Every structure is written in structure tokens, then in C-alpha cells.
């Protein structure tokens, strides 16, 4: 590549092990992101924090700056494994650069007899 070219150097290639992207870090226990958790960038204009980001973390920040994406979508757009994306997100959250919205827990199934009793009561009261 000549000096005149302005092409961005790709730092992650198939020859670079994935632990290099995460600086050898593991996912902290308190950051168990589900694949449906939504992430977005905070309104932080810290140039120092942005300069300290790895190319992969910067790519994640670019993706989530203007809205919410799920963890799985971030993984798909960056072509990084889900585990690596979770570690990058944990680093970004610890640095205060992103907000994470946990998925809404599934409601427990209501008993069919209880629902039938409520429906019968409504039919009796309103004559439907």
C-alpha cells in the first residue's frame, strides 16, 4: 500500500486471535447480556474516550450511535462472535459510553381456569 492511499487499515484479520480484540479480558459475571438486550450510545462527547477505543469498539459505537440495536444485531453487523461483542459491550458500559436495556422478562403463564373464570364473570356482568 502506498503512502498516498487513504484506505483504513484493517486491524482484525483471520490471522489475529480474538483475544487480542478484547485485550485478553473475559466477560464479567455482572454483564450477562442476552442476545435480545438493546444497546445504544450515550450522549458523551469525550474525545479522549473515543480515541482510546479499539477499532472494533469504535465500529460498535458507530453502529449504535443513532438508535438501539440488539446484541445479536451488533454481532451480525460487525461479523464478530457474540461472546466477543458481549465483552466489548461490557467494556463500553463500564466506561459509561453505552446504555443497555435488558429484555422484558417473559410473563409467567396464567392458569387457564383463572382466565376462564374471569371471562365467565365478564360475560355474566356484561351479557356478552
Automatic annotation (TrEMBL):
<dbReference type="InterPro" id="IPR007995">
    <property type="entry name" value="DUF742"/>
</dbReference>
<protein>
    <submittedName>
        <fullName>DUF742 domain-containing protein</fullName>
    </submittedName>
</protein>
<dbReference type="Pfam" id="PF05331">
    <property type="entry name" value="DUF742"/>
</dbReference>
<dbReference type="InterPro" id="IPR036390">
    <property type="entry name" value="WH_DNA-bd_sf"/>
</dbReference>
Amino acid at each position: 500500500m502506498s503512502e498516498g492511499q487513504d484506505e483504513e487499515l484493517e486491524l482484525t484479520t483471520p490471522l489475529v486471535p480474538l483475544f487480542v480484540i478484547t485485550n485478553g479480558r473475559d466477560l464479567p459475571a455482572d454483564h450477562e447480556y442476552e442476545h435480545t438486550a438493546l444497546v445504544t450510545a450515550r450522549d458523551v462527547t469525550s474525545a479522549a474516550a473515543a480515541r482510546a477505543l479499539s477499532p472494533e469498539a469504535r465500529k460498535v459505537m458507530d453502529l449504535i450511535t443513532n438508535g438501539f440495536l440488539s446484541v445479536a444485531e451488533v454481532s451480525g453487523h460487525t461479523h464478530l462472535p457474540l461472546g466477543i461483542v458481549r465483552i466489548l459491550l461490557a467494556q463500553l458500559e463500564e466506561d459509561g459510553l453505552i446504555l443497555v436495556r435488558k429484555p422484558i422478562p417473559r410473563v409467567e403463564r396464567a392458569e387457564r381456569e383463572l382466565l376462564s373464570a374471569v371471562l365467565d364473570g365478564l360475560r355474566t356482568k356484561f351479557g356478552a
